[in-house]
Automatic annotation (TrEMBL):
Pfam families reported for this sequence: SusD-like_2 (PF12771)
Alphabetized InterPro entries for the sequence: SusD-like_2, TPR-like_helical_dom_sf
Presence of the UniProt keyword Lipoprotein in the record: yes
Domain of life: Bacteria
Name of the protein described by the UniProt record: SusD/RagB family nutrient-binding outer membrane lipoprotein
Positions of transmembrane segments: none
Alphabetized UniProt keyword annotations: Lipoprotein
Signal peptide annotation: none
Presence of the UniProt keyword Lipoprotein in the record: yes
Length: 532
């Protein structure tokens, strides 16, 4: 019997890995078979531990995303059955386990690092800074779906010498976790600007880092992009408004000091080089497209928007139903289950393009990308009254989104898909026409509310099923775009929830600490940043 938030997985450690493409096939030994660790190896253990929840994999997409986040954002269509707004317990627990597996690895890294003398700590500082940024990224993700979670005391079983009772972890509030991480990320951003590595540790960092391949500038961009994302998330919280605006202004006004991801070439992601290693997206097909009914079916609102505005991403992201005569149709969330089923069975429903998405075993593990950053910048500039910069960031974000999906398509190894052909990449001319169209054109929106709706819609289109956590967070925070859902009168949860509840295993084995949050642990309790 074990409490999840102090979980310490057997075999926390990894052997040395290489980021050279030719060596990926032998790069990832089974961590359960490794018996000792170093700071360098343990750093890779942190990154490796939750890779299947970064790369698009079967368990994540099939047990979690198809039953919760993706239908809540209408990134996919879903049958109107009773209970459709109650997150599946297995899917929620899987995400929870993944996070605390990673946290256990991180605590072991802290433990090993703390045992080193000062000179060795100085040499290995980059491993601690980079691992902390990665952990904070995934901490924000868990906070954004659960609210209060065990954080500051979580994962301490090994550190506390195996003393179970001493290691039970309190729940920290979502707002306090955000404040703590924002403070620490600012510290890390400063430290990264002053860090230097000797040749030996530069090589070691390149070897162990399969995300940014030892590129310190990329880790600076990751750090500040994460800060920007978090600061924008809390921009409507009264107690954090001033901080949000001042720190975003500082980041965007000092690119040399606080670089962020600006172009798709700078995207933070796990790239797949060899599908015969553990770093692959082979589970994407079964996770997204194996259900037969939903998981990869298109929602009506998204398809209608893309059809109406001649979105150049439409044929890259979707393919028409087998009997739809080339037309893109989505599932109507307000239709009855019988009507929805008949539409699907008749081959009339579009699905996510299999060449680009599910059958693409080289699909990267998306973490932060340039379109996302520019759409966040557009929101900030609009909020602070700089319409010209908002327009530029908005249009840049859209252009980069098309480039992003063109690039994803170019990576595909999918072949011979029955009833489908490889889509043609979007052109610059199609992007220009899209930006000038009535439903997208910035200049035709006459109020800030209309312009914010444009930004929110483009975030929603860009994120779709690829960045589901960002999609659900922004949809809840902005209440845009406006989506319609059928009311489930046969269930207590009649509409999509605004958070997940804490998994039952944690409730059972961390009862005393859970009692402090029990009253607010409801599907209807909004996150602190969800104030609209």
């Amino acid at each position: 019997m074990k409490k999840i938030s102090i979980l310490l997985v057997a075999g926390l450690l990894l052997g040395t890995v290489s980021c050279k493409e030719s060596e990926f096939a032998e790069a990832y030994p089974n961590p359960a078979k490794i018996s000792e660790s170093t700071v360098e190896k343990q750093f890779t253990g942190v990154l490796y531990s939750n890779r299947e929840y970064v790369l698009p994999g079967y368990t994540h997409y099939f047990t979690t995303l198809r039953l919760s986040l993706n239908p809540y954002t209408q990134a996919i269509g879903r049958l109107n059955q009773s209970g459709l707004y109650v997150p599946g317990s297995a899917g929620v627990e899987n995400v929870w386990y993944s996070y605390y597996d990673m946290m256990a690895q991180y605590r072991e890294l802290q433990k090993i690092y703390a045992s080193k003398p000062a000179d060795q700590q100085a040499d290995r500082k980059i491993f601690m800074l980079a691992a902390t940024v990665y952990v904070y990224d995934h901490t924000q993700r868990l906070v954004d779906v659960h609210g209060a979670i065990p954080f500051t005391q979580a994962g301490m079983l090994s550190t506390n010498g195996g003393e179970y009772e001493k290691s039970t972890a309190k729940f920290d509030t979502a707002e306090s976790i955000y404040a703590f991480m924002l403070d620490d990320l600012k510290r890390i951003a400063t430290e990264l600007n002053g860090i230097t590595l000797n040749a030996g540790y530069q090589k070691s960092f390149q070897t162990q880092d399969f995300i940014n391949k030892g590129d310190i500038t990329a880790w600076k961009r990751y750090t500040n992009s994460l800060r920007l994302r978090m600061l924008n998330r809390v921009s409507d919280v009264e107690s954090m408004k001033a901080r949000s605006n001042s720190e975003i202004a500082e980041i965007l006004g000092n690119a040399a000091t606080y670089p962020i991801v600006e172009t798709n070439a700078q995207n933070i992601q796990i790239n797949v080089f060899d599908i015969n290693t553990d770093i692959n997206s082979k589970g994407f097909q079964a996770g997204l497209a194996s259900d037969g009914w939903y998981g990869n079916t298109a929602g009506k609102a998204m398809i209608d928007n893309m059809n109406a505005n001649k979105d150049p991403r439409l044929p890259i992201l979707f393919e028409p139903g087998a009997n739809a005569a080339g037309k893109f149709n989505g599932i109507d969330p307000l239709a009855t289950e019988a009507v929805q089923t008949a539409q699907f069975n008749a081959g009339q429903v579009a699905i996510y393009n299999r060449y680009t998405t599910s059958n693409n075993q080289f699909f990267p593990g998306v973490i932060i990308n340039a379109p996302q950053m520019n759409l966040i910048k557009a929101e900030y500039y609009l909020r602070t009254g700089n319409d010209a910069l908002a327009k530029t960031a908005y249009e840049t974000g859209i252009t980069q989104s098309v480039e992003f999906y063109n690039k994803i398509l170019s990576l595909t190894n999918a072949t011979g898909i029955t009833g489908s052909t490889i889509p043609t990449p979007a052109t610059s001319a199609s992007v220009a026409a899209y930006l000038a169209g009535d439903g997208v054109n910035w200049s035709k929106a006459t109020t800030n509310a209309q312009k914010l709706s444009l930004i929110a819609t483009q975030k929603w289109l860009h994120y779709n099923v690829v960045q589901p956590y960002e999609n659900w967070a922004d949809l809840r925070r902005l209440d845009m775009p406006v989506l319609s859902f059928q009311t489930d009168n046969a269930n207590n949860q009649t509409l999509p929830p605004v958070k997940w509840t804490i998994p039952g295993n944690e409730v059972t084995y961390n009862t005393a600490n859970y009692e402090t949050v029990r009253a607010t642990d409801k599907l209807t309790t909004k996150l602190f940043w969800d104030v609209k």
